[in-house]
Amino acid sequence: MKLKELITSARTCRRFKGEKRLSSETLAELVDHARLSASARNMQVIRFVTVAEASTCEALNGLVVMGGALTPEQRATDKQHPGGFIVIAGPEKMDDFATMDVGIAAQSINLAACEAGLACCMIGAVKKEEAAALLGLPEGMQVKLVLALGEADEKRRIVERRSDGKLTYYRDENDEHCVPKISLEEAVILKK
C-alpha cells in the first residue's frame, strides 16, 4: 500500500470488534514503530504503556470518551470496545518540541496499525489522573494521549466538507463514519 493510501485508510475508529483481543506482543510491535520514528531534538522523552489485559482495558475504557460529536446511540456498544490500548506518557512539564513527539508517535502507531489490518482512535478526552493511577505510572510521568486499538467494526471514509461548511465528523444514513476534509486548494494558502 502506498503511503497516501495508507494515510487515507487510517481513519479514526470508535467501534471495534470487542471479542478480538490484542496481545502484548502486537501492542509492543506497534510501539516499536513509534520508538523508531523522529523525535524533536532526538530527546526521546515519551514512554509507552501497553494494555492488553481485558480487565485493565475495560477499566481504561471507562476513563475515556470516544466520539464526543456523536450521539450516545451512535457510540460503541459494550461489545464494541477496543481490543487493547497504548498510552503515551511523558514528563509533567514538556516543551513544545517534546509535545511534537506525542503526535509523531501517535501517527506512527496509527499507520502501523492500519498496515496490520487494525484500527486506532487517538483519545485526548481521558481522565488523565485516574488513568495514571490505574496504570501505575511512575512519579513525574503523566498520560499525554491514549490510543485505542483493535479490529474495526465500522466503515470510515473521507468526504468533502459538509454543505453547511462544518467539518464535524458524523454518521451517514448507512451508519458509516464520515470525516469531512478541506480541499487541497484550501489547505495550501500560499504558493511562492
UniProtKB/TrEMBL annotation:
Residues 7-150 form the Nitroreductase domain. It comes from the Bacteria. Keywords: Oxidoreductase. InterPro entries: Nitroreductase (IPR029479), Nitroreductase-like (IPR000415), Put_nitroreductase_C_bac (IPR023312). The keyword Chloroplast does not apply. GO terms for molecular function: oxidoreductase activity. Coiled coil: none annotated. Belongs to the nitroreductase family. This is Nitroreductase family protein.
